[in-house]
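Please fill in the sequence for the structure shown.

STRUCTURE ENCODING:
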């Protein structure tokens, strides 16, 4: 059943509160032993703290909103009876929150920092409890997830996630030279979600920043070679943050500070990964955060549209990015663009780009959903945003519409099914 935003919020705060009370390695090891029959040792080893462990329990369907029986049993066996009481209190609050019929399963999430009341230490444990997470909890809070369920007859239509493979490889190419307001936030958001929350391997940093055309070609070939190393990966994401024009992605001069007036097209990028034996029949995703021209996406204003506040101009920065229209011609590829052909993609200096910010938010809240559904929800959220414009003294607004082109032949999930 779908849950209301309040119910999800209670669940989310419960997990944070529990994690802050369990920082003893002995407790964590005992909890892992209790789960060894349901969760593989490799995945348990990746859970470095109690919050990670509960995230993993959600991934396999042991834990969800209102589904705490297994967790209570584990805490009882570990002698953490005080935490069992905490769970029961949360269960009562969840039951008291009756979701309305209008609540949808795909509600937009929010970035939220746990309040001070969640950070207090529990005296009943007799320790100074503290927690840490492998992802940035100041930006992304743990949120409820539903176990992936595939209808009978459709199981063969889901990309396999072999236990012998690593979950996913994510590479972030950040070509913004010295104009970095907002783009470094995009990198941090991507690292938090893919590296911390999903526990994928994420490659970024100086070796993947401000690349010339020659260095970019070499780097992409190196990435292809990595994909062919055993045991391999179940999923591959190449995320490019760059300037460009309608013909392709712009690259930098050797100094990494100015543009070299060279272009690499998305077709050229996908061509490099066409013949990758260990990725045959597995999904390859290319995410392009860039403008694809200089036109503003026009908006149809309703009569009740609020006036645009002049102060909104201060935080909005237009990216001179452009990307060629490109369709992946091989199977099992997906290319997601921040905006439609010919139009500008928007970036805020205090939040990052509209597209990446909302994509990370939707993944955080709905990471058990099919990836195409995640992109669709991201498009919906971005389409709601507006950027203030003024021409000849007339104020108006611009919009943005993400788009993706897919040759995926099966459903793709971000977590191991």
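FILLED IN BY: designer on duty
SEQUENCE:
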């Amino acid at each position: 059943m779908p849950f209301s935003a309040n119910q999800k919020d209670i669940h989310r705060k419960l997990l944070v509160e529990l994690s802050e009370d369990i920082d003893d390695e002995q407790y964590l090891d005992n909890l892992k032993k209790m789960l060894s029959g349901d969760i593989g040792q490799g995945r348990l080893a990746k859970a470095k703290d109690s919050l990670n462990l509960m995230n993993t329990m959600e991934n396999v369907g042991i834990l969800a909103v209102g589904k705490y029986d297994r967790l209570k049993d584990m805490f009882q066996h570990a002698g953490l009876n005080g935490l069992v009481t905490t769970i029961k209190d949360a269960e009562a609050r969840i039951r008291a929150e009756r979701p309305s019929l209008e609540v949808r399963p795909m509600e937009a999430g929010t970035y939220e920092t746990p309040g001070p009341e969640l950070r207090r230490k529990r005296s009943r444990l007799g320790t100074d409890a503290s927690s840490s997470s492998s992802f940035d909890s100041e930006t992304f809070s743990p949120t409820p997830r539903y176990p992936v369920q595939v209808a009978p007859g459709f199981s063969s239509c889901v990309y396999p996630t072999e236990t012998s493979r690593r979950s996913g490889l994510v590479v972030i190419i950040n070509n913004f030279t010295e104009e970095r307001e907002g783009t470094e936030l995009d990198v941090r958001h991507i690292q938090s979600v893919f590296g911390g929350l999903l526990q994928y391997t994420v490659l970024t940093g100086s070796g993947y920043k401000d690349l010339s055309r020659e260095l970019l070609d070499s780097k992409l070939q190196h990435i292809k070679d990595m994909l062919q190393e055993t045991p391999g990966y179940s999923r591959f994401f190449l995320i490019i943050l760059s300037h460009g024009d309608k013909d392709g992605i712009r690259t930098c001069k050797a100094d990494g500070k100015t543009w070299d007036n060279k272009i690499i097209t998305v077709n050229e990028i996908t061509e490099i990964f066409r013949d990758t034996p260990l990725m045959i029949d597995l999904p390859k995703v290319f995410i392009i955060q860039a403008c694809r021209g200089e036109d503003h996406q026009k908006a149809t204003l309703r009569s009740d549209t609020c006036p645009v506040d002049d102060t909104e101009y201060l935080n909005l920065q237009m990216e001179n990015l452009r990307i060629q229209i490109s369709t992946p011609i091989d199977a099992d590829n997906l290319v997601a663009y921040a905006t439609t052909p010919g139009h500008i993609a928007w970036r805020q200096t205090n939040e990052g780009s509209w597209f990446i910010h909302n994509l990370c938010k939707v993944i955080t809240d709905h990471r058990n959903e099919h990836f195409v559904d995640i992109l669709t929800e991201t498009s919906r959220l971005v389409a709601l945003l507006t950027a203030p414009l003024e021409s000849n003294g007339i104020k108006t607004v611009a919009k943005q519409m993400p788009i993706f082109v897919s040759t995926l032949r099966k459903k793709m999930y971000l977590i191991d099914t």
